[in-house]
Amino acid sequence: MPITQVRDALHYYLKPENSNIANLGVVYKALPKVADESQIFTSTFPGLQVGAMIYMFITGQREKRVALGGQHNGVKFRQYDLGLLIVMKSDTPGTGEGQDAYDTLIDDLTAWIQADRNAWTEAASLGGQGPYVGTGIIFSWGEGAIIGGGEDIVIDHVIPRTIDGGVTLFQSVAHITVIESMAV
Questions:
Q1: How many CB atoms are closer than 10 A to CB 49?
Q2: Alpha carbon distance 98, 95 (integer Å)
Q3: Which residues does residue 145 pair with via DSSP β-bridges, in sequence order?
Q4: Does the predicted model carry a pTM greater than 0.70?
Q5: CB 76 within 8 A of CB 182
Q6: Which of 32, 141, 152, 166 is close enough to 178 for a disulfide, judged by CB 3.0 to 4.6 Å?
Q7: What are the pLDDT digits (tens) for 104-139?
């Protein structure tokens, strides 16, 4: 499958209307030229004062043939390193409330990734849904590399900062291994 279909399937799975990740307003599958800051609050309750956006990046790609069925029966896997730049803005009176909201966002995101190793691309009878059901585009994600293991999900948190003594900005980058099984 083309890398575009992998990115599209993951974007569909992560969209706020599908994932119900707390405080997540928008997921961009590519870096927009201009991001509309008001979109970070579109999926939050009025007056909640927190909202987040995620930017998706494929930061690396590798391929490996694995002879699972012997010397002539192999499967080729393409491994992607998916980077999610997570930005959350908090207008709450104290930084503690913002930190709690950010922690909930991260917990919900990791739980959503762990909820379906195929990101809804498996057959409908196995839990797949949406436009990519049954395509099998995502063999697995958030479960490390196919050979040699590795990290499942890594999140690098940046120290939060307060802007002009009012708004607190939380940022992190999540690194997730995505595996695509390719026809050989």
A1: 17
A2: 5
A3: none
A4: yes
A5: yes
A6: 141
A7: 999 999 999 999 999 999 888 888 899 999 988 888
